[in-house]
Amino acid sequence: MSNSRLPAGGRIDRSRPLRFSFDGKVYSGFAGDTLASALLANGVHLLGRSFKYHRPRGIMTAGPEEPCALVTVRRDEARCTPNLRATQVELYDGLCAFSQNRWPSLAFDIGQIAEWFSALLPAGFYYKTFMWPRSAWHKLYEPLIRRTAGLGKAPRLADPDRYAQQYAHCDVLVIGAGAAGLAAAQAAAASGARVIICDERPQMGGTLLLDDAARIDGRTTAEWVDATLGQLRANPRVRVLPRTTAFGYFPHNLIGLSERLTDHLATPPPGLARERLWQVRAREVVLATGAIEQPLVFPGNDRPGIMLCSAALHYLKHHAVLPGHRIVVASACDSAYRVARSLQAAGAKIVQFIDLRSQADRPALLALRESGVSCDSGLRIVATRGGNRVTGVDIARIDSSGALSERRSIDCDLVLMAGGYVPSVHLFSQSRGRLRYDETLQVFVPGESAEQERSAGACRGIAALAEALLDGARAGVAAAAAALGAGDSAIAVPNFTVERSANAAPPLDVPRAELATHGPKAFVDFQHDVTLRDLDLAVREGFRSIEHIKRYTTTGMATDQGKTSNLNALHHAARELGQAVPAVGLTTFRMPYTPVTFASFAGQARGELFDPVRRTPMHAWAVQQGAVFEDVSLWKRARYFPRGREDMHAAVARECRAVREHCGIFDASTLGKIAVVGPDAVEFMNRMYVNEWSKLAVGRSKYGVLLRDDGFVYDDGVVARVAEDRFHVTTTTGGAARVLAMMEDYRQTEWSDLKVWLTSTTEEWAVIALQGPRARELLAPLVDGLDISAAALPHMGVVEGTLQGVPMLLFRVSFTGELGFEVNVPASEGAKVIAALHAAGERFGLTPYGTETMHVLRAEKGFIIIGQDTDGTLTPDDVGLSWAIGKSKRDFVGKRALARPSMQRSDRKQLVGLLTRDPQVVLEEGAQIVDTPNQRAPMTLIGHVTSSYASATLGRSIAMAVVAGGRSRMGQTLYIPMPDGEIPVEVCNPVFYDPKGARLNV
Amino acid sequence: MLLIHCPHCGTRPELEFSYGGEAHIARPADPSLVSDEDWASYLYLRSNTKGVHAERWRHVRGCGRFFNALRDTTNDRILVTYKAGEKPPGEFR
Amino acid sequence: MSESMSGLSVASPTERFVLQADAMTLAAAAQALGFDSDVVTSEARDNGAFALLWLGPDERLILAWQDQTPQIAPRVASALADQPHSLVEVTHRQVSRRLQGQSISELLNCGCPLDLEPTQFPVGRCSRTLFNKAEIVLWRRGSNDFHVEIWRSYADYFERWLIEAAQDLPVSTL
């Protein structure tokens, strides 16, 4: 192990050494390390290559704002997560990480050639360079760019891990568990509120843990954090969620949290979910999200070994790692002095400290100089040296003309930057709160709220420990009071006695834009490789709004969302434009705060749980019969029942013949059913459906057609009157829910005076269709003496009875054109009844058939299927159903629309039959129709094929189609243009089989 | 996901509701007396308000009732909800 | 069924009916079933023979517990003979599940978006709601005891999800 690790200190467990590998090389670290801290402890600074120029990049930060140190962590072929911030990856024994965006190796990257040609890659290079020729984009430029640019690769295998989701509610959600957050949670919990507190880090406490000299109520910060967390955990109304990122603030105080459950474990227990997505509905939210230190912009500021001051302090205090031994500190604010002293105390040498501010030397600087450190005010870093790690810097004074003086070179192995702190206002901004520019702090802070939330502590510019604690406590009290409906004064704000605290995030007291040092490769956005020069170019080319500058240069658009670049870019653009910062605007902060896995959003809704899989009561019977199923809405329906080696075509032909010649049995349970009940049921039906229902006798049914008020066919189905005040309405399988919803809409909002009510009975009944010439003789012996003769139960008759003792509603209906019955029995009895019918039917040649055969049989009869032969633009007349309309009715849904002239034009598309000239040719459903072949493209299309089958009964193909003015084209030859030529077809009546209906009325 | 106050059941998550378009557009009592143009506007023309919009919701996964809401389309805030058939409360008219 | 799911059991009423009518009629029906009064908004009551669940202002779900012979229709229909109403049998439309155990409301919150904290969803509260993509009627019978009604073809989805989610329950201080 390198001497970067200190022998004592830090919050690591030296008794638990861990081995891990990076790019195949094995290193060791300790429990409590992140991948970044462990690599730094091993002297590894080079972690990746940059997005555009493939420049070597290292570790810049110690948190979620990290723009550079993106790695892939791999457990196995499938468990391979790209683009993780090494600063947030917790080390475990056996962790296996890889650098990204490099080829053939990290240290020697052929893509770095891009940097030599970087003149070709200015801002907006996508828009400029690859404009011509157009065809080259897909063939040449894009594949090349994709190969050399980009981030890590997603694994190709399906994600084998499990992901949980959870809804939760609380009075107060506290986001961030630093000083302000912990104080807020403590205060809110003390008032009796239900509290959830989350923090993205494994250890709660935030920057409190770095402030080890401070005392809160006489305790060290670490002791105070432990005690406070202990209290919170012991409270049954508080939930403490470490390793949990609040990634999105959604309307009405819904916050998305992503909890990482197993990523830090060497061997995750099998079956344990990897992540949990929380959807938390909070009455009140306290945002205590802290502040993020900003880098400085100077030439070559991106080399490995150049990092934020706060990061160095973090590695020192948390992980006992000295990221360098000969350190140059470049600071624009007072926080760096404390860091320099800490590093010095830990054994590092501060070889040069420069305070960018040009004012006279400050007391802190003088004090540092007294301790033997070379300190200067008003100097800048004007160049850096080094390949895969910084080896030195050039510093100089720059006068107003840009001339350099006092230039000198300094050797070093670490450069620290302190560019001031920026409040983390991402979640506040996501909540659509209005940000306010604070001229003093030169940052945006939360202004007017849009949601029930308040910010506390550093995220609103209050950074000093005592103030942050108090601010947090006040926010916690106010949030609890608001959530519980109590007055603010009802709850006391706790006091804190704070001693010896250093101000963690002092304000920047020089203009931010003046901190930038111009020169080559002065990076603003480190992840997207956007430099000062790119921003200058954008301004020179006329971009005025930060929204446009952002899109043109792509600054702030990488996966880090500009956490370390937005403000620098904005200040620089404002200066170049000669405008105030707020006038140039701030880009929108978008969710997620840090990337969230797709699997987390999917949660448990994968595979069998993606959607409910609805099965009928007779599903097991169909499985037993060897059914092949198809999905119809959420239902599994038996499509066909192959025997032996039959394919679908053969099975369907056999099933069709069986129904036409003997009898078939079919599970029709999925049809929607609605009980329409009440004294005004008949009036309601008259208003909803096109048909006349007043004269329908009890014990009779008819085919009903439902339109929308725009006059177009919406649904259909057989409707039975089972009592004076009671209709049994059936709908299509897919239409069940929407038909009920539409009926409820009219019932509740238009005709609320009607005494009628609707109840879905779809699943109350199992429905078994028996269809075929032998259906009656098969059924008669089973219905316990009920007379089902043609006289007693004619076509469209309905009767209640029992079937072997099971209550039954029996319909004599046919969707096949054959003598047919639909046996409705209580769903719980469906399996028993179908087995009984099937057994009894054996000697009649009873054959199970599926939806495919049902489709063919109904097409032979010209019966339409809603949604297949209709598409929401066809009137009843278009599909040949005007006979169903109750002509004497004053009104029904859709009637008025049918009177519009356009609905009555003779050239509307109308349903017709098509017969191919070659009877063996089966048309493709959806194929377009033209009236003359040999047209030049684009041809004039006059309709399309809606249904098409090979009919075993007719020994040829049949098709249904909608064709403009189709009914006036009977006998005409039309053409179906296909890739291998036009298919000639003859227009005919869509009823292909038994047009007189003789087979029905037997 | 919005929180919506059902006038019958209280405040519930948006998941339980379905949206029903603009409110207070009554179906003409006798459509046969309505001109083609008026019928077309009844069917298709909606105000598409920027600001406070009266709209229908149904607590379809709850009590099943349709009701009306005044929602500010600029910020998704629901000012008030009231039962179907009622007019918006006085202060919002 | 895994051990963690020992709280999931079948609780089958012998009959189920949906009754829809105006308030007066619903009150008469409640009395016919042996209740002092109708249930109020989001309330469910059980008198041993019948359970009466509020589904909507004009809609009740009636469960019968005891006899195999029809109980609900004869009582309600005769009591309401000349009052407009709709009484529809849904005995077979749906199935019932009883969910009991320490963390049962958290388990339900894997798919149900309601706040099930006892002050927000107290014992005796019932509501139609969602469990992920399935509609359910949720009735709290005790602090850790829920009765769920679900359409029969969704029951498998509901149970599978609960079994899956039971593995993932947050170790909770709640």
Termini separation of chain A comes to 95 Å
- Structural category of chain C is alpha+beta
CATH class category of one domain in chain A: Alpha Beta
The overall strand count of chain C is: 10
| Number of separate helices of chain A | 24
Largest sheet composition of chain C: 5 strands, antiparallel
Number of strands of chain A: 50
**How large a portion of the residues of chain A is in β-strands, by DSSP E?**
25-35%
Task: Give a verbal description of the structure.
The complex is a heterotrimer of chains A (1002), B (93) and C (174). Among the domains of chain A are: 13-124, Roll (Ubiquitin-like (UB roll)); 164-291 and 423-499, FAD/NAD(P)-binding domain; 522-600, BFD-like [2Fe-2S]-binding domain (Arc Repressor Mutant, subunit A, Orthogonal Bundle), CATH 1.10.10; 671-761 and 881-891, Alpha-Beta Plaits, CATH 3.30.70; 901-1002, Aminomethyltransferase beta-barrel domains (Elongation Factor Tu (Ef-tu), domain 3), CATH 2.40.30. Helix content of chain A is 22%, strand content 28%. With 1002 residues, chain A is α+β, with helices and mostly antiparallel strands. Chain A is built from 24 helices and 50 strands. In chain A, a hairpin with a 4-residue loop joins strand 30 and strand 31. In chain A, strands 8, 9, 12, 13, 14, 15 and 28 form a seven-stranded mixed beta sheet that branches. Chain A is elongated and about 115 Å long. Chain B has one helix at 36-44, and strands at 3-6, 10-13, 18-22, 52-58, 66-72, 77-83. In chain B, 10% of the residues lie in helices and 37% in strands. Chain B has a four-stranded antiparallel beta sheet with strand order 3-4-5-6, with no helix packed on it. A two-stranded antiparallel sheet of chain B has the order 1-2. Chain B has one domain (3-92): Folate-binding fold, CATH 3.30.2270.10. Chain B has 93 residues and is mostly beta strands. By secondary structure, chain C is of the alpha+beta class. Chain C has two domains: 3-10 and 93-166, Gyrase A, domain 2 (2-Layer Sandwich); 15-89, Alpha-Beta Plaits (2-Layer Sandwich), CATH 3.30.70.1520. Chain C is 20% helix and 33% strand. The longest helix of chain C is centred in the C-terminal third of the chain and has 12 residues, at 155-166. Residues 1-6 of chain C have low confidence and may be disordered. Classes of the chains: A alpha+beta (1002), B mainly beta (93), C alpha+beta (174). Chains in contact: A-B, A-C, B-C. Chains A and C meet through strand 8, strand 12, strand 15 and strand 39 of A and strand 6 and helix 4 of C.
